[in-house]
Amino acid sequence: MTTRIGRLTAAAVALAVLAGATVGCSSDDDRPASGTDLPVQVDAGEPTAAADFDVRTGTQEVTVTGAKPKQRLSLVDADGNRLMILRADRYGQAHFGYLANELMEVQTGAKAKLPTADGKVVEPGDGYTVRNEDTEPVQVSAPFRVYGRDDHPDEGFYDEQAKVLVPEGDETSRFGYVTMRDGVELSVMVRLPGPVDAGPYPTVVEYSGYGPANPDSPEPGTMIAGLLGFATVGVNMRGTGCSGGVFDVFNTAQQTDGYDVIEAIARQPWVANGKVGMVGLSYSGITQLYAAATRPPSLAAIAPLSVLKDPWLQQWPGGVYNGGFTKQWLAERDKQSSAGGTSWVQERIEGGDETCAAHQELREQNIDFEAFGRSLVHRPALADERDLSKLVREIDVPVFLTGAWQDEQTGPQFGDMLANFDQAPVTKFTMFNGRHPDGYTPRILSRWYEFLSFYVRREVPKLGPGLRALAPAAFEDFFHMPGLEFEPDRFGEFGPDDYDAALARYESEPDVRVLFDQGADPDLPGKPVPTFEATYDPWPPADTEARTFYLGDRGALAGDAPTAEAADRFLNDPDSAAKTFFSDADGYDLLAPTWDFDWEDFDADGSLTYVSEPFREATVLGGPGRADLWVRVPDGDADVQVSVSLIDTAGTEWLVTNGLLRLSDRQVSDELSDGLLVDRTFAEADSAPMPEDRFEEVSVSIPPFAQAFRPGDRLKIAISSPGRNFAAWTFTTVGDAGTPRDVGRGGDHASSITLGVLPGIEEVPPLVAPCPSLRGQACRPYEERTNTPAG
Question: To which H or E segment does residue 221 belong?
């Protein structure tokens, strides 16, 4: 379904959040009903011997090698409590990354499924040991420390790696390895603009679990940065490619690996200014946020594109399981992180890379993340360790971030965390209607290059005429669209010695740039160029006006609440959860200028629709929103979708965005919510069934967006079961087919939707947008519907 730049960490991120429920092991001597014959407490008087197996301790994880297959290896804390018993795999290995809520034995290897979704990570601390319970006497390792997220090595550790990635002579590239604080080696591919002695060069790092270290196929961010004159370094995460270690998704070890990577690479002699930046889209965009949150001193700036907000929420948007893209992405991750799982890794091994070959055995310890993630029906407290909306508060370097409201893979939730970059000295955000790879469109890349020039190259940004001449052909090849080119240089009046003045002007500009109507070109539908743009500081704008629309009689959407009590009914349609808006069931062409839509409406009784009167003047709706609905269900729970769309004067309906909610997760968190932003903990303690046979008010979060409504356009709100209105997301929902869902309107049960009206836009140009054309936005002829009154 996707190409390299489109592949997402999406749901699997949340899978890694098995960091699960905050429950611990018993400290008494009772033997737990877990299939083990060993007590929790170690017998302090038992004879022991020194271990002949090896223990590698890392950040919240412990890896054992050198045992014999199926031997029982116990992780023991400083108080003598067995925390987990793992049986070694066929290579005599075991990896402690997650601990169950009670002592149990687990056979590891072959992507084993741990028999619980409750537990915790290995907590930092001293005095841990590992015991081989099947030797006589029992072998016990020396006590060791498990490290925490902030336990960084001293600078000498990185200084020792200062020359490990230096191409020889006139060579401009080198494949090699850098060493992490726990001894794990990550595979690295260095590409320089010229030989080492012609440097140093401004340098950027692309870090992910795909193939950034593949010598023969650079990732897109690496390729573009290289063409723009940057030295580039592609790094494969632990447990992927030729890298060592066990694969997990955004666990703490991978976060601190980002710190170590930056510090080791910044010390290479060909790096200019002693600092490096980071680049990449999707997987390698998200990793930048995790790495930067660890605050590596040698990080200059980051430029993440197409990212997500909260890994758990990505897999459970609104508490509804995202079972489409999630499963596909996980299957690909499982395959590629297995031993020799990609062709380039196999080629390295066949070519004699003994380090790469030696790293493959530990792949046996990779676990089945899909099984974990699907079991996390409620958001565990320790998910906060991977919640980017919280971690970005720790980032203290300049940030350039972009995203599409209609991103079919990562979604629009990233927009809710833009206000959280509290410590970043500079933030530059660009948002737009569009698709997953659109961070690489010319309008975005022009500003991306400016940002990297200022903060990594530390020069006034100016694109050379040769590159400008080559760019249109390259863009046409990539986006299948002629006439694309970089923006003109915006700092042309500044000379090379005017860097400080140019930087001051750049930093005085608004932080937020919003592009509208990308793709609306009658001659070249889908062309990634906007019709107009607006700037703000901050997002959402502080003076955004909240406008409320009430659900009314005969499918009306009005500014006043009806006085008469009434309700409409739709029937649960679980089959819709598996339907997307594409005509091709096999997926979509990620880079096609337009998509072939088959956006099917629900059956007559499968949804409720409410349509406003035509707008009299241009109105730009945007920011987060909320649908406050009075809902009655007979079966205790329901999954609900609230969709926002635009009906233009030509009679075309354009999908804008969708909000989702599992009604048992309806409790709103006052601490997390702000204004029109509705958020909730999704914790098990906050979950409650819907009351029987009476209306209950629920608030469905409408994710952030920005959409211009011109005179004559109408706003449509649809309420239904989840599905049909997404590209790559499908769902697994609750409830039987045909079960009624009643939505109140008027009187004491006046349901409404509240959206923001964006300020400061004085003129909205006319628009001629054929269907399809607007990037990322499904379209179809509008058909008027009649709602069914509730019985």
Answer: helix 220-227
Spatial distance between the Cα atoms of 126 and 81, rounded to a whole number of angstroms: 14
Residue 724 lies in a domain: yes
Q: Which residues contact 657 (CB under 8 A, 6 or more apart)?
A: 405, 406, 412, 643, 644, 702, 703, 705
In this structure, what CATH number is given to the domain that contains residue 650? 2.60.120.260
Average pLDDT for residues 556-580, to the nearest whole number? Answer: 96
Q: In the predicted model, what is the mean pLDDT of the chain?
A: 92
* Closest listed residue to residue 697, CA positions, set 745, 643, 657: 745
Predicted local distance difference test score (pLDDT) of residue 340: 60
d(CA 235, CA 263): 13
Q: Are residues 639 and 671 in the same domain?
A: yes
Query: Burial of 485 by CB count in 10 Å (0-12 exposed, 13-18 middle, 19+ buried)?
Result: middle
In angstroms, rounded to a whole number, what is the distance separating the alpha carbons of residues 517 and 531? Answer: 6
Query: For the whole model, what pTM was predicted?
Result: 0.94
Q: Tens digits of per-residue pLDDT, 276-290?
A: 999 999 999 999 999
pLDDT of res. 11 = 30
49: number of Cβ within 10 Å? 12
292 located within any domain = yes
What is the Cα–Cα distance from 273 to 91, expressed in whole angstroms?
Answer: 45
Q: Which residues pair with 98 in a beta bridge?
A: 121
d(CA 182, CA 55): 10
Q: How far apart are CA 266 and CA 278, in angstroms?
A: 12
Parallel, antiparallel, or unpaired: how do β-strands 752-757 and 639-647 relate? unpaired
Helix 252-266 crosses helix 283-293 at what angle (to 10 degrees)? Answer: 80
- Provide CB contacts within 8 A for 579, sequence distance 6+: 600, 723, 724, 730
CA-nearest of 298, 291, 296, 289 to 271 is 298
Structure tokens at 31: 């033997």
Which residue spans within 47-91 are E strands per DSSP? 48-50, 54-57, 62-65, 72-76, 82-87
Tokens in use for 581?
A: 């808006």
What pLDDT, in 10s, does the model give residues 96-120?
Answer: 998 988 899 999 987 666 655 567 8
Q: Is the peptide bond before 200 cis (omega within 30 degrees of 0)?
A: yes
Both 594 and 699 in one domain: the answer is: yes
Indicate the length of the chain as a whole number. Answer: 791
Residue 305 scores a pLDDT above 50: yes
**For residues 247 and 142, is the Cβ–Cβ distance under 8 A?**
no
- The b/e string for 622-655 (b: 16+ C-beta within 10 A; e otherwise) is bbbbbbbbbbbbeeebbbbbbbbbbbbeeebbbb
- The domain total for the chain is 2
Amino acid at 307: V
Residues 551, 610 contacting (CB under 8 angstroms) = yes
Longest dimension (CA), the chain: 86
Could you write out the DSSP letters of every residue in 554-593?
GGEEESS--SS-EEEEEE--GGGGG--SBS-TT---TT-S
Question: How big is the CA angle at 319 (ends 314 and 324), to the nearest 5 degrees?
Answer: 55
**CB contact at 8 A, 495 and 484:** no
Residues 599, 647, single domain; the answer is yes
State how far the Cα of 380 lies from the Cα of 684, in Å rounded to an integer. Answer: 8
Of 742, 751, 787, 743, nearest in space to 634 by CA: 742
d(CA 231, CA 59) in angstroms, rounded, equals 30
Residues 777 and 726 in one domain: yes
Q: Which domain-ending residue is among 516, 536, 556?
A: 536
Q: What is the DSSP string of 696-734?
A: EEEEEEEEEEEEEE-TT-EEEEEEESS-SS-SS--EE--
